Amino acid sequence: MAFCHARDFLFCSMCGTFLSLKSSKSADCPLCGLKRNASEIEGKEVRYTVTAEDIRRELKIEPLVTLESAQIAEQVQRAVVNETCPQCNNPQLEYYTKQLRSADEGQTVFYDCPNCRFKYSLNT
C-alpha cells in the first residue's frame, strides 16, 4: 500500500465534503452527490497523528496541569502608571507588557485597574 501525502482524494472536488465509500465501485459525496471512481482511492494510505493537545482543544477541555509560570505571573507586583481607568476613572492603573507579535513589531501593553478590575490592552 502506497503512502499518499496529498489527502484531497478523500474529499469531494466540488464542495470539499468527506467522501463516503458506500460501494466497492465508487465514493459518493453525501452533500452534492458527486461520484468518484473507487480506483482513484484504492491502494492509497493516509497516516496522521492525534495528540492529547488536539483532543483537548477539540473537546474544549482545560489542561489538567497549570504551568507554574502562569501562577507566578499573577503573584508578581505590577508596575503602576498614572493613567485614568476608562471604566471607573481611577487615576492609576497597573500594567505589564508581553511580546505577542513578531519581534520586529511593538509589544502589547496590558492594563488592569486595581479598583474595578477592568482590563484592556494596547498594541504599541
TrEMBL record:
PROSITE patterns: ZF_TFIIS_2
SUPFAM superfamilies, A to Z: Zinc beta-ribbon
Keywords carried by this UniProt record: DNA-directed RNA polymerase, Metal-binding, Nucleus, Transcription, Zinc, Zinc-finger
Pfam families reported for this sequence: Zn_ribbon_TFIIS
Locations listed in the record: Nucleus, Nucleolus
Domain called TFIIS-type: residue spans: 81-121
Matches recorded under SMART domains: ZnF_C2C2
Family: Belongs to the archaeal rpoM/eukaryotic RPA12/RPB9/RPC11 RNA polymerase family.
Function: DNA-dependent RNA polymerase catalyzes the transcription of DNA into RNA using the four ribonucleoside triphosphates as substrates.
Annotated PANTHER family: DNA-DIRECTED RNA POLYMERASE, DNA-DIRECTED RNA POLYMERASE I SUBUNIT RPA12
Protein's name in the database: DNA-directed RNA polymerase subunit
Organism: Platanthera guangdongensis
